[in-house]
Design goal:
about 260 residues; alpha/beta; about 30% helix; 12 strands
Length: about 260
């Protein structure tokens, strides 16, 4: 884990989230990129060029933002980018060789009932970049226990488990694997690959309508410091991720970080 990216919005939690990001990056000796992406919508015929104004304001905002936290000995790089959120974010992550995005649940939303706001939800749903969603106001602490929930342990894509490996190695975490048998179960779905088997300390199974329900039924018994899921087109949070926003009442584990790995097939 060498490069971590933090997209900054205007939420009241931004400072707390950035401090967590600094503490997390320090544990790995990683470089921290703090970025803001802006877009410009101008009317036809407008003569005033506002790009440089927005860029300057964005840079000033980020500098002020960084000044409010203890950066410790972490290398923090601030950057601003103009463009559409998802496309720009994917290009930025590729060019900077980002290993993980640290996301606030709500970068801009002010609705208390929302767990995952539209911007963060869009990043999770529409990109294929590994992400760590950190609850609002959450203070950094070592990740001693991880619960990983899967409906299929088939892993074909190379490098998908790298963020999980890095976290487990760094904290010497115990990894509990929960295999959830859903109505879409296929023969062989619970055949754990050797790569994953080497990481897992214990395995349990449950039978539920969705992976999400399996997690709700089991995560309190495991009492993990981190929940790990994978991004699938029709996978974890199937119903919840139909929309970019996710309500707190629909996601009961909003008190622990969630590691979202890129698609595993």
């Amino acid at each position: 884990m060498k490069s971590i990216l933090v997209p900054v919005g205007s939420s009241k939690n931004a400072q707390s989230h950035l401090q967590y990001a600094v503490d997390f990056a320090q544990a790995f000796g990683a470089k921290l990129y703090v970025v803001q992406i802006y877009n410009v919508y101008t009317k036809s015929g407008t003569m005033i060029k506002v790009d440089h104004i927005l860029e300057r304001e964005s840079m000033d905002f980020l500098k002020g933002h960084i000044a409010k936290v203890d950066t410790k000995n972490v290398e923090v790089v601030i950057k601003t980018f103009k463009g559409k959120l998802i496309d720009t974010l994917e290009l930025v992550c590729k060019s900077l060789d980002i290993d993980l995005i640290l996301l606030e649940p709500r970068t801009n939303s002010i609705k208390d009932e929302v767990y995952l706001g539209k911007t963060s939800g869009k990043i999770i749903k529409q990109t294929n970049i590994p992400a760590l969603i950190v609850p609002e106001g959450f203070k950094y602490k070592p990740i001693n226990s991880i619960l990983m929930a899967l409906k299929s342990a088939t892993i074909k894509k190379e490098g998908v488990l790298n963020p999980l490996k890095a976290i487990k190695t760094q904290y010497k975490s115990v990894l509990n694997l929960l295999l959830v048998k859903t109505p879409f179960y296929n023969e062989g779905d619970f055949d754990v690959t050797e790569e994953l088997k080497l990481l897992v300390d214990s395995t349990s199974t449950s039978e539920n309508a969705t992976t999400f329900q399996g997690v709700l039924e089991n995560y309190k018994d495991n009492n993990p410091d981190l929940l790990c899921v994978v991004r699938r087109k029709r996978g974890f949070f199937t119903k919840l991720w139909e929309k970019n926003s996710i309500l707190k009442k629909d996601f009961h584990s909003s008190t622990l970080p969630v590691l979202v790995l890129s698609g595993i097939k």
